[in-house]
Amino acid sequence: MRLLIQKKTIRLLVSLPAALSMLLFSGCAVGPDYVRTEPPASGSWHTELKAGLTDEPIDLHTLAEWWTTLHDPVLSNLIEKAVEGNPSIREARARLREARARRGVAEADLFPTFEVTGSGGYNRKKTSEGINEGDLYQAGFDAIWELDVFGGKRRSLEASEAELEASQEDLRDVLVSLLAEVALNYVEVRTFQTRLTISKANLDSQRETYHISRWRYEAGLTTQLDVEQAKYNLEQTRSQIPTLQTGLEQTKNRLSVLLGRQPGFTEDILAERKPIPVTPLKVAVGVPADVLRRRPDIRSAERRLAARTAEIGVATAKRYPNFSLIGSIGLEAAVSPGNLLSSGDRTLLSSIASNVLWTFFDAGRIRQTIEVQTALQEQALIQYEASILTALEEVENTLIAYADEQVRRQSLLEATQAAQRAADLSSYQYTSGMIDFQVMLDAQRSLLSFQDQLAVSEGRVTLNLISLYKALGGGWTAMVPD
Hints:
By secondary structure, this protein is α+β, with helices and mostly antiparallel strands. It has 2 domains: 1-28 and 113-147 and 322-357, Single Sheet (Outer membrane efflux proteins (OEP)), CATH 2.20.200; 31-111 and 150-319 and 364-478, Outer membrane efflux proteins (OEP) (Up-down Bundle), CATH 1.20.1600.10. The protein has helices at residues 2-26, 60-64, 73-85, 87-110, 152-218, 224-258, 288-294, 296-317, 365-431, 437-471, and strands spanning 53-54, 117-126, 132-146, 283-284, 322-333, 346-357. Strands 2-3-5-6 form a 4-stranded antiparallel sheet, covered by helices on one side. The radius of gyration is 38 Å and the shape is elongated.
């Protein structure tokens, strides 16, 4: 009968955690429940959409790999290398793994956890004459389970899950910024190369003009003034080349570092000079609500708001009692140690008890901790709202910049074409003696200025498109987080 009662006790120890788990999981957790809401946004953009911009729905595949719209294989190759080797991406992946592990710790705390301590004993009984009456051996273990009655551990798991999701969005946000930075620096490289080509072509033209002015001076057809003016115009153009070359090399070095490589890595890749990538004729930008749902920085801020809300519940749970179950199971046998588990002359011992820990006075520590978590939740809400405003501002600014720069580029293109005709005509008229040297000199200066401004504007149009895709939250769906 004794053994039967103890077996029932064992079955109680095994079934009780399962029953209590169902009870606890079905109960309510203290603290506020987080309710996710859609970010507020207007139905249309404040900026007038023009120059190829439309509010048509964005093709998600195009947005995921937006750099392919520039049709530049070199750029696509650089972006692949950046995703593989950039230090910020590797760091964000490590933070994601950390958040995943922390979530696992919080989940493990939620379920029954037994802290086992092994125990054993040995007693020998002898008569007063020293005769051995028998040996008594004991072995067993103890277990403790801390119950989550008021949901503090569940709130902790909820916070950890939200932090894990925020880390995933952080990785995506790093990816969005990285791809845009690689593309921006690549376009800067091509812009510097174009400007250098223009400056060197003008340098050759002005060198020829200088030789012509010297020949005319030596022939007595002009004065020393024309020679000196041609000289300083030539040297002024020559002085611009080192500045452009410095900018080109610095941008190449920056691009190499973005790829996770040492400066100079991209030298061979970018050795061949190519034109600035041309933007597509039509770009769909969707509506503000689409952007707010897609941008990873907003999604991350929202998840951290959820985490801070759950942590209020973690702090609130400390106001309430902490319940624990303590159990032990053991064997007692009057045999040798080798027969402890096989001898029929053994006794099964078991016990179960409960423990309650409740803090009645802590000088307001728990109340202040709740206040701290509430203030952190308020800060997270403000940061979430600020991220929405920042996102809308970035998109609106890039929309107007992209459209207006195209208007500016068209004007510069027409001005450059007119300046080229004026420079050709003035060169012919000067050689023919129809105009003075100053007129031709002004025409050459204007041509160089307009050509350089046009190159900068063409690069800026593409840069603004890249910034627009970044503001729209494009690029992160091209990679699944680790």
